[in-house]
Amino acid sequence: MWILLALGAAILWGVSYAARGRVIECGMSPVIFFFCYAVFATAMAAVVLLANGEMASVPRAVDRLGKDRIWLLVSVVTAAVGGLFIFLAIGQKNATLAALVEISYPFFVALFVWAFFRETQLDPVTLFGGLLIACGVFTVFVANRD
Question: Could you list the residue range(s) of the whole structural domain that residue 56 is in?
Fold first, then answer.
């Protein structure tokens, strides 16, 4: 099931990037778009938590993290700032190019998983795929410098 969910996310993000590119090109500030996104995401999460009966368990879930609560903070802050950065990048260039560069994030996932937790989940085939992504990002960057 995870593969279908991941593929579904990729498809939905594709639609979202195309749509957000249009909205920002039509003059909406990337920061206003980010605000709208955050408000909707918050409302959607609240509805799902209420529907699942999990709203009351949010504080306990955070408390159960104990000293690892810092990772929750790091995760949500960096995700929010990263979201803002991609909206700003779209505003400065376009959705297609911003997404093609952003796709390099698996390199940083692997790097930070190793740096923070000393976990390695790479094999030669995965490394080769990552090299192809890096070559693609480099190609997009060189071809679109201005």
Answer: 2-92
Please write down the long-range contacts of 100-105, taking CB distance under 8 Å and 24 or more positions apart: 100/136, 100/137, 100/140, 101/137, 101/140, 101/141, 103/133, 103/136, 103/137, 104/133, 104/134, 104/137
Of 136, 129, 103, 81, whose CA–CA distance to 14 is shortest?
A: 103
> What's the whole-model pTM score?
0.84
d(CA 23, CA 94): 11
Query: How much is the pLDDT for 3?
Result: 85
The end-to-end CA distance of the chain, in Å, is 42
Q: How far is CA 124 from the centre of its chain?
A: 25
7 and 61 inside one domain: yes
Q: How many CB atoms lie within 10 A of CB 3?
A: 7
Whether residue 116 is found in the same domain as residue 143? yes
Distance of alpha carbon 140 from alpha carbon 120, whole angstroms: 28
Q: Which residue has the tokens 């490394």?
A: 127
Average pLDDT over the chain reads 92
